[in-house]
Design a protein that fits this description.
276 residues, alpha/beta, six-stranded parallel β-sheet, 12 helices, 17% strand, globular
């Protein structure tokens, strides 16, 4: 098996990281602590980098959306945001130690951002939700500098949002527009935001703000948070879970049956591939 070389970009060393393809989407072997360190490290670089949370829904979308699939191939970190993805990645041979739910990733990221005097921007959600999320996060990270803008922006409004992001001197940008819209936004506009680290984060602001209540711990541990979300928003999420979950399982079954698994090195300059 080939080894993955340690890649150094700027002053930040990127740790070797193996990955696996899970039902059409690349998933990197990274835990919570490593994800925090990686994203904070990006803010010390002169090159923009992007992190994406991968769950069953994202995998389903990527199989039928070539643009999203291409985006996931080029993103710098694809962490396992769904428990089903963790279990599948492990079965495929990737050493994914834990689920990195974006809702759990945000608080330690913002605490680190506060300590390192980084500027953060929340973009997305309904009017007022991102600001409510920012207010809640200031309770756990009082010194964090967060600016916000809702996600209901037309084509003409995009330029104003970009000006606000740049004016804030944003180091860490959260884009919460839902999959695959948020990835398309980052693809089309991310470079002009000036942020060095970008996370696509779906409905994160609804959860951070308290607009949606998180599932009980036992459901999260059991990989049943999707059922809780379905109970909260049955009309919006019925198709995603009642149709999407079986589709994800079927895609995995086909992948196992055809042995079409690949393990690769972290996508970066100089990294070697790992092909099973």
């Amino acid at each position: 098996m080939a080894t993955v070389m340690n890649v150094t970009r700027g002053a930040f060393a990127v740790a070797p990281r193996a990955s696996a393809y899970v039902a059409g989407a690349r998933v990197d072997s990274v835990g919570m602590d490593a994800a925090v360190e990686t994203v904070i490290g990006w803010t010390r670089e002169n090159q923009q980098r992007v992190a994406v949370g991968v769950n069953a829904h994202v995998s389903n979308l990527a199989r039928r959306d070539p643009e999203l699939r291409h985006f996931l191939e080029g993103s710098d970190l694809n962490y396992a945001d769904g428990q089903s993805v963790v279990w599948a990645a492990r079965a495929l041979g990737a050493s994914v130690s834990e689920r990195v739910a974006t809702t759990d990733l945000a608080p330690p990221l913002l605490q680190r951002a506060a300590r390192e005097n980084l500027n953060v921007f929340f973009f997305g959600g309904q009017p007022g939700v991102a600001e409510s999320a920012a207010e809640q996060m200031r309770r756990i990270a009082p010194d964090v500098k967060i600016a916000t803008h809702h996600g209901y922006v037309d084509a003409e409004g995009v330029e104003e949002v970009l000006r606000e992001i740049r004016a804030h001197g944003t180091d860490l940008l959260f884009v919460g527009l839902g999959d695959p819209v948020q990835q398309a936004w980052v693809r089309d506009h991310g470079t002009r935001s000036g942020a060095t680290a970008i996370l696509t984060c779906g409905g994160l602001f609804d959860w951070l703000s308290g607009a949606n209540k998180r599932a009980p711990a036992w459901m999260i541990t059991a990989g049943l948070e999707w059922a809780w979300r379905l109970m909260i928003e049955p009309k919006r999420l019925a198709r995603r879970y009642l149709v999407g979950n079986p589709a994800f399982i079927l895609a995995l079954a086909i992948q196992f049956a055809t042995r079409s698994t690949r393990r690769i090195g972290h996508r970066g300059e100089g990294s070697a591939s790992l092909d099973a």
